[in-house]
Amino acid sequence: MSFEFLAPDAATIAEGRRPEPRSPIEWAHRDAGARLEIRAGWRVVAAYGTARAEAAACSSSVGVADLSFLGKLELQGKPASVAAIVAELAEGAALAPGQATLSEGVWWCPISARRVLAVTPPEATASVRDAVEAAAARAPEYVSVTELTTALCSNAVVGPLAREALARTTALDLRPRRFPEAGFAPVSVARTPGMILRQRGDRFLHLFGAGYADYMWTVFVDAATQLGGRAVGTEALGASVGGKAVAGA
User: Fold this and answer.
1) E strand segments, the chain
2) Phi-psi sector, 63: left (phi>0), alpha (psi -120 to 50), beta
3) Distances, alpha carbon 145 to alpha carbons 6, 50, 88, 128, 171, in Å
4) According to a count of CB atoms within 10 Å of the terminal CB, is the N or C end of the chain lower?
């Protein structure tokens, strides 16, 4: 059985152009006044108003951004084979429970010893998928590679009050000494299965099933608003982390 249909870049070209993938709740962003731009072929929210005001929210309270354009690839197989593939593609990284690894803009996140989720910048998803599939084909034992980019959504929760926003939805202990940078955990969020990655500092990535996109967006934007924060676009996230690329930051 092939899951190729889950890959956004597998869309059929019609009338000379490939359809632009988008967030499943683009309509909600449009209703909120979002300005949309194309990034790596995706329609993404650049800003809702001025990026400066949104960046200020990320610096002083909390900002929530829809980053559903990030690539998500799942490797699944025997622990030794999965570990070998990750080590090959992530500069020799050895994943440990609860700890992700960042290598060349790609986050390698251990769901379990048998399952690893690779989170990629949108412009790198296809090339990373090709590399993972090639490595899996060379493995001595079968390792499955499943494209989950459109099956999983991802929201960034950023700012000094990011932990407060997350604490309203999950029992995960997010204190720095218990959940350090690159910490990763499959966990219930707002009574829904999900995963949380602490990328660095006060920047978190929440991954969850695409069917819950509207629900999760409402939950976190409401939490951010109550804390003095707001919904933000990718321009604000870039500004809040020194102008570095949103996906790999």
Assistant:
1) 35-39, 42-47, 63-66, 71-77, 101-103, 106-110, 115-120, 143-147, 152-158, 184-189, 192-200, 203-209, 230-231
2) beta
3) 12, 40, 15, 11, 31
4) N
Measured CA to CA, the distance from residue 178 to residue 172 in angstroms comes to: 9
CA 82 to mean position of chain CA atoms: 21
For residue range 112-133, list pLDDT tens digits in order.
Answer: 999 999 999 999 999 999 999 9
In this prediction, residue 15 has a pLDDT band, given cuts at 50, 70 and 90, of low
Residue 7: pLDDT band (50, 70, 90) is: low
Report the 10 Å Cβ neighbour count for 70.
Answer: 23
Contact 43, 88 (CB under 8 A): no
What rounded mean pLDDT belongs to the chain?
A: 90
Q: Where are the alpha helices (DSSP H) in 105-245?
A: 125-138, 162-167, 213-226, 234-240
Q: State the sign of the Cα–Cα–Cα–Cα dihedral 196, 191, 122, 31.
A: negative
In the chain the first and final C-alpha atoms are separated, in Å, by 35
> Cα separation of 245 and 207, whole Å?
19
Report which of 158, 170, 247, 163 is spatially closest to residue 208, judged by C-alpha positions.
170
Q: 110-129: string of b/e by CB count within 10 Å (b at 16+)?
A: bbeeebbbbbbbbbbbbebb
pLDDT at 8 over 70: no
Helix, strand and coil percent figures for the chain, each rounded to 5: 30, 30, 35
3-class DSSP state of 232 = coil
Per-residue pLDDT at 38 exceeds 70: yes
